[in-house]
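As a representative case, the lines below give one protein's residues and fold tokens.
***
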Amino acid sequence: MSLDEQKKIARAAAFARRKQAFELHRPGAAGKLSELLAGYRGAALSGYMPIRTEIDPLPAMEEASAHGPVAVPVIQGAGLPLKFARWEPDCPLIDGPFGARIPQTLDYLEPELLIVPLVAFTRQGGRLGYGGGFYDRTLEALRAKRPTLAIGFAFAAQEDPDLPLEPTDQPLDLIVTESEIIQPG
């Protein structure tokens, strides 16, 4: 079986686990994320606008915005890295590519910390995304310039110890779930 086929199967299983976790959602995950982000106050941060059954980082992003710049990803096109537009609570939003909302005014910045959405993760920092490679390309480019922290944010049910990964998959530095903060390594 090819790596692409393995990833497709892993994604389908992870989406099912994520959907179930989303439906049973227990409060507290954004609080754990806020706790972690408090140690990085003032650093440029990228979050994301949750879609479908993604875990919601907005409460932590709102809190972080009181201490420093916060942005959300903007897809520029297939095969390109992401750009990040400044976001503030209650800023006007428009529909962006793939259904994610983006700020109406695109004031770009370069984040030092990224809250990364995902489909599945491993305790060693492996991440399975949606398959477009946007975060992998982006993290690789940012990390080539300077230290950049990638924080996976997910439900604990999205953990999968046997993810099919490849060398171009950028690792997560930390993972935050509703039940714990995981430091890979």
In short: The mean pLDDT is 93. The chain has one domain: 3-154+174-182. The first helix runs from residue 3 to 23. The two ends are 29 Å apart (CA to CA).
